[in-house]
């Protein structure tokens, strides 16, 4: 690692950041709560997509105490569409810990921040430096890309040992002041100039004169990253069940992917009409119609980090249903305003409504006879 080379980036990078940084709602002040919420939301999610979620979330939960007291169902509804719902659950757990252990004040020290549920080294570094001006780097993919290009470093950025080494090297060059701005300047450079996909915007880079990859035209060779494991493909059959203008939902298991979330009834594999009819009969549903939409969109795909779902959905009109603890029946209005539905099942819901004749009005749904 070229420590002298890295030291030289501090001044021009800070000047560029002060002049060119994006105006983002979580940068309006140094409130650790807002910084924390934004960093958790930004994991696996683009800035443009996060902004409306962040704004809505802060309006409902403006501080640690309100987040700690937020009902789980409302919290998940606020998070609906962002995915990785364990992040939202851990936010609440951490807020409750702060209220119980730290008297409602966000801890300032890196080690204390790191102990909070759902916070890893990157997030702890970001909060500690941006909110409290500590020399604690926040090393993520953007920062690793910037540094490996600057120094033409061909180590695998996925190795934990290399990330720790990079963190130590960056700690050495932190300025005595504006440490939070320096952390954000590295993030910003990786997000808008030294970009991940396609050619970096090197002519716009404030430190291109210090960049070895730019000088040697090797930008696209960095960072070096081992290939991801091939995603496991799982076939799913999803059932969109209607009864008296209500829709059937059930809870997922408390372990595994989308743990504890609402879902449409479903089965592993691609089921035939006869198999579905048999399953419904076993659950004591009396079905008057069972349709597999002819439109090609009845086959949908959803990608998780390590799993890919290929989903085929069927629509069933139920004349009678047995009372069961396994199912909850909700109106369209409830589903859209109160109930958090994971994106995979949201795709089925939206497509089924658009591509079939089952669309019903909010008015009719609100007036429908209560069941169960």
Report mean pLDDT, rounded to a whole number: 90
CATH topology of the largest domain: Endonuclease III, domain 1
Number of strands: 8
- CATH C-level class of the largest domain is Mainly Alpha
Q: Low-confidence stretches at least 5 residues in length (pLDDT < 50)?
A: 357-372
List SSEs in N-to-C order: HHHHHHHHHHHHHEEEEHEEEEHHH
Walk me through the topology.
Elements: H1 3-7, H2 10-20, H3 32-42, H4 47-60, H5 64-69, H6 72-79, H7 86-101, H8 110-114, H9 121-132, H10 141-151, H11 160-173, H12 179-192, H13 212-216, E1 232-243, E2 246-251, E3 262-263, E4 266-268, H14 273-282, E5 286-291, E6 299-303, E7 307-320, E8 328-330, H15 332-337, H16 343-355, H17 362-367
Parallel strand pairs: 1-7
Antiparallel strand pairs: 1-2, 1-4, 2-3, 2-8, 5-7, 6-7
What does this 3D model show about the protein?
The structure is a single chain. The chain has 17 helices and 8 strands. The radius of gyration is 25 Å and the shape is elongated. It folds into 2 domains: about 220 residues, Hypothetical protein, domain 2 (Endonuclease III, domain 1), CATH 1.10.340.30; about 140 residues, Alpha-Beta Complex (Nucleoside Triphosphate Pyrophosphohydrolase), CATH 3.90.79.10. A hairpin with a 3-residue loop joins strand 6 and strand 7. With about 375 residues, the protein is α+β, with helices and mostly antiparallel strands.
């Amino acid at each position: 690692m070229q420590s002298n080379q890295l030291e030289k980036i501090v001044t021009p990078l800070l000047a560029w950041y002060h002049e060119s940084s994006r105006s983002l709602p979580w940068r309006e002040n140094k409130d650790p709560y807002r910084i924390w919420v934004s960093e958790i939301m930004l994991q696996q999610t683009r800035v443009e997509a996060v902004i409306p979620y962040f704004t809505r979330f802060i309006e409902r939960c403006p501080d640690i105490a309100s987040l700690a007291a937020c009902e789980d169902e409302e919290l998940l509804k606020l998070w609906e569409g962002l995915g990785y719902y364990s992040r939202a659950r851990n936010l609440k757990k951490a807020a409750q810990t702060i209220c119980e252990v730290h008297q409602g004040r966000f801890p300032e020290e890196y080690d204390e921040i790191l102990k909070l549920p759902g916070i890893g080294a990157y997030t702890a570094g970001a909060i500690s430096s941006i909110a409290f001006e500590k020399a604690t780097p926040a090393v993520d993919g953007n920062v690793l890309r910037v540094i490996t290009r600057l120094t033409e470093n061909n180590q695998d950025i996925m190795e934990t040992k290399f990330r720790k080494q990079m963190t130590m090297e960056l700690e050495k060059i932190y300025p005595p002041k504006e440490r939070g701005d320096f952390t954000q300047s590295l993030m910003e450079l990786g997000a808008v100039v030294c970009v991940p996909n396609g050619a970096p915007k090197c002519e716009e880079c404030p430190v291109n004169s210090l960049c070895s990859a730019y000088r040697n035209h090797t930008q696209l060779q960095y960072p070096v990253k081992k290939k991801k494991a091939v995603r496991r493909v799982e076939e799913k059959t999803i059932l969109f069940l209607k009864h008296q203008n209500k829709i059937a939902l059930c809870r997922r298991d408390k372990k595994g992917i989308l743990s504890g979330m609402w879902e449409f009834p479903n089965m592993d594999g691609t089921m035939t009409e006869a198999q579905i009819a048999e399953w419904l009969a076993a659950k004591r549903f009396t079905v008057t119609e069972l349709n597999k939409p002819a439109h090609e969109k009845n086959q949908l795909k959803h990608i998780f980090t390590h799993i890919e779902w290929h989903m085929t959905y069927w629509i069933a009109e139920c004349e009678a249903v047995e009372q069961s603890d396994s199912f909850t029946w909700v109106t369209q209005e409830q589903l859209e305003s109160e109930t958090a539905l994971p994106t995979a099942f949201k795709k089925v819901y939206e497509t089924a409504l658009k591509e079939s004749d089952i669309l019903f009005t909010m008015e009719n749904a609100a007036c429908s006879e209560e069941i169960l």
